[in-house]
Every structure is written in C-alpha cells, then in structure tokens.
Please model this.
Amino acid sequence: MTTWIAIGLTAAGCYLAKLLGLSVPPGALERPLVRRLAALLPVALLAALTALQTVDDGNGALVVDARLAGLAAAGVVLLLRAPFLLVVAAGVLVTAGCRAIGG
Amino acid sequence: MRDSLGVGFAVGLSGFAFGVTAASGGLSVAQACALSLLVFTGASQFALVGALAAGGNPVTAAAGAFFLGVRNCFYGLRLSTVLRPSARVRPLAAHWVIDETSVVALAQPTGALARLGFAVSGTTLFVCWNLTTLLGALGAGSIGDPEAWGLDAASPAVFLALLAPMLHSTAERATAVLAVLLALGCLPLLPAGVPVLVAALAAPVVLLCAGRRGRGSGGSVEETEVAR
Model:
C-alpha cells in the first residue's frame, strides 16, 4: 500500500510540474535566478543519485563493488561521446563481467 | 523523424532496465507499469524505485522523485512558446514534456516541425517505454538474479548519462561534486531517501557562492548566463 501512495504522489507531482510549465504565461518564471536554480537542481540530484546507487549497500553503508567498475566503464564510454544506449550497456556489461570473474 | 525513432530505441532499453529494477526492488508488475504510464519521466521513476527498495518512506521517496521531475516544468516553459498548444491539447501534451521530447522539439527550425517532432517522439517514447517496462517487469523473475546480469548498475549509468551533458560550466561541476559529497556523507547518518534531498541543497549553495563572487568581481552570474 505504501508503494501505491508513493506512486500516486510521484505521478501527481510530476504531472503537475509538467502542466504548470506548459500553462504559465511565458516570462512569468523566466527570472534568471529561478532559471539558474532550475538548471542546477537536476545536476545536484543526478550527481547524488549516481553516487548513492553505485556505493549504497542497501543498508545505509558504503560499499565498493562491481558497480563502481561498471560506472567507470560508463564514464569512459561517455567521454568517447557514445550514444546513451552504449553508455548504459557498458555499465551493465562491465558490472556483470566483474561479478562473473568473481568481483 | 529519424532522431525521434533513434531516441525511442535507446529509451526502450532503459525501459527494460527500469522494469527489471522495479521488479527486483520489490514492486509488482502492475506498480512498475503504473509508474511508467502515469509518471513517465525516467529519472524520477528510477529514483523512486531506488528509494523504496532501500527502505525509504513513501513521502521522502516521492519527494526525491518529484524534485527530479521539476525540471520538466522548465522544459514546458520553453516548449509552450514553440508548440503553442490549444487549451484542449495542453493537458495531454503536458504528459509528454520530458528530456527527450524537449530536446527533439526545441531542435526543430519551425513551429510546425517542432509540433511534429514533439508528437512523433512523444508517441514513440511512450509506447516503447511502457512496453519495455512491462517486458522487464515480467522478465525479471525468469532471468534469475538481476545482480548477476549487472542490472543494478543500469540506473546509476542512466543518471550519469543524463548528468554528463549538463556539466558544461564550473558552477555545474561544483554543484555535482558538492552534491556527491553531501549524499555520501549523509548516507550512514540519515534514513534512506533523505541524503538525496540534502544533496539537492548543493544547487542553492553553489548559486549563492557564485552570486557573491560574481558581484565581487564586477559582473553578475546572471549576466554571464545570458551572454552564454
């Protein structure tokens, strides 16, 4: 049940954010400071999520495992300007490979 | 048109990864599909599932996902001037305001092409994303241990791929580094889902510091931004 509550809240919140953007008259939220904050907010969230989901052991402790190797591989592929698909595939395959070898 | 389909294919793979991640994170097939149908913004969905799987409470988990979804509001602001949707179409079009459709629509030279690009990429993505979520959620049980396939690395890799193109100036890089430090520092101390929200504070902190430094050296951050 709690999962459905989380789904409902997320769906409503995310939809309203999208609708608000399309509905507000142009210029109303276009203040430079608001725009700067809006640009930086996803940067902070995505960076934090990338880090957390790479080293979180699921019990609130940090752990270094095959995921870190996978993420490093994804990073290298990103630097080569490869498309989105290859970046994710590299992360998944290298993580799986490290685990298969015994990491 | 070709761009739209290419993006659709790439998103299909992450949809599959999302379905598997959701199912192995303890969500039912119906819950995974409901997320893809109703939320339809990938980063928020991965964030929500990750927070729930880590044992976060539903409100904290939804808050983290919501803050990630706020960026779509700003895409909408830019899109509304290009697409000029009628009042009747707007509630429908709003659901498709995401990273990929915005990139495709805003890259078109004319309003008509932008509308076409938005509609085609929106349709392709919505269909691909939901079908592959269903397949992933259904298939999660039959592929055995998702960790053996490295699928727990899919979600951080998706986040990294979304993050990388945003890191074009010092302010963005500083925000990312500060957010990582805050998140990892808070991880052992705070309940699941909360470290992400604390890390979000990196954005206003960096903005404040940059503003102060900008004023000190004569030019404001806003001016440099407009110039760029």
User: Anything to note?
Assistant: Chain B has two domains: 2-166, 167-228. Chain B has a mean pLDDT of 85.
